[in-house]
Amino acid sequence: MDDEVAKDEVNSSEIDENVEEPVPQSHWFRDLHVTSPTTGWMQKNNNSLAVYVERELDTLVVSFDNLQDAGNRKISRGTWGYSFFTKFGYSHLGISTSRGNWFRDQTTIDLLENLKEQGFFDKFKNVAFTGTSMGGFAALAFSQIVPNSNVVVFSPQTSLDTKKVPWETRFRVGRSADWSLPYSDGTQGLEAAKNVYIVYDPIFSLDRKQIQRIPKLPNVHELWLPGCGHKTAVVLRRLDALNYVQKNGIEGKIDAEMFRNMARRRRYIVMYKKGMLQRLEQRQDSEIGKTFGNAFLHRRRKHMRWLKRQAAK
Q: Whole-model pTM?
């Protein structure tokens, strides 16, 4: 009888004449599919989505959306850094938002506090918080929920509270968010972290002023990418250095000298040239800008010839 029933069964696409062609799904959706060996869960609350995928229990990475991803409606959209964390086998809690509100909503706060109360974070040997820009703010602010965690952030803000940073002119929607909620200042509670790695451009004045608010603590490590503006994570990816910074930051062992050596390679990429020329233009140093531009082209051509010789060996 059961075999006869099975022969008569049809799938949903055969029933629905209006079914659309398959749409690429996000990686986390596939990992949480009923046929996947991976375990985890997702939770949707108003404007936020939390996705947890469990792999090994040595390390949990908690990541937050950046502003560019906020409100992205693509079905294939993943949580920030998902592919990277998957490659290294980390368990991952990714938090996304549908608005650029800098995670100033009670549901996100309740989610993380409830997880702490339930002992969710206690089963991991190492917990790391990470993100860039808006996500970097959230990583700084919420890291105090898990003492002794590692924090890796790229061009982060510390707050958009107009009472604390009246000079901040960016992120209009974020500045209008509710900054009276808890965890609204990324400079607070950092003494509880194991390591805090902050990658930013000290020449970019607004980012520099944000970082200057952070106390000079022995566990806080500033990693400079001068001339790269607010796109430090993108620059590191172009330098093939983002994996190093993420992995070693998550594990609490970035070598400052090695980072400086990798950062020097920015001299050969166009994003660095554009960033420096923009700064010089703002200072109205046209002659210095012309000299810098010519020197960059000469240096880059020389570097490209060297790369070709290396490839030919």
A: 0.82
**How many Cβ atoms sit within 10 Å of the Cβ of residue 213?**
14
Contact 142, 123 (CB under 8 A): no
Owner of token pair 């959706």: 29
pLDDT tens digits, one per residue of 14-30: 333 444 444 444 566 66
Instruction: Spell 85-122 as b/e; 16+ CB within 10 A means b.
Output: bbebebbbbbbbbebbbbbbbeebbebbeebeeeebbe
Which runs of E-coded beta strand occur in 65-205? 90-97, 126-132, 150-154, 195-200
Bigger pLDDT: 37 vs 218: 218
Distance of CA 291 to the CA centre of its chain: 35
In angstroms, rounded to a whole number, what is the distance separating the alpha carbons of residues 226 and 190?
A: 24
90: Cβ–Cβ under 8 A, 6 or more apart, which residues? 55, 56, 59, 60, 61, 250
Distances (CA, A) of 276 to 6, 106, 223, 279, 291: 67, 40, 18, 5, 12
Task: Please answer whether residues 42 and 64 qualify as being in contact, where contact means their C-beta atoms are separated by less than 8 angstroms.
Answer: no
Tens digit of each residue's pLDDT (9 = 90 or more) over 51-74: 999 888 899 999 999 887 766 666
Which residues have C-beta within 8 Å of that of residue 11, sequence separation ≥ 6? none
The 10 Å Cβ neighbour count of residue 170 is 14
Q: Which helix (H) or strand (E) holds 276?
A: helix 270-282
| Residue 62, beta-bridge partner list | 93, 129
- In sign, the C-alpha dihedral spanning 50, 56, 62, 68 is negative
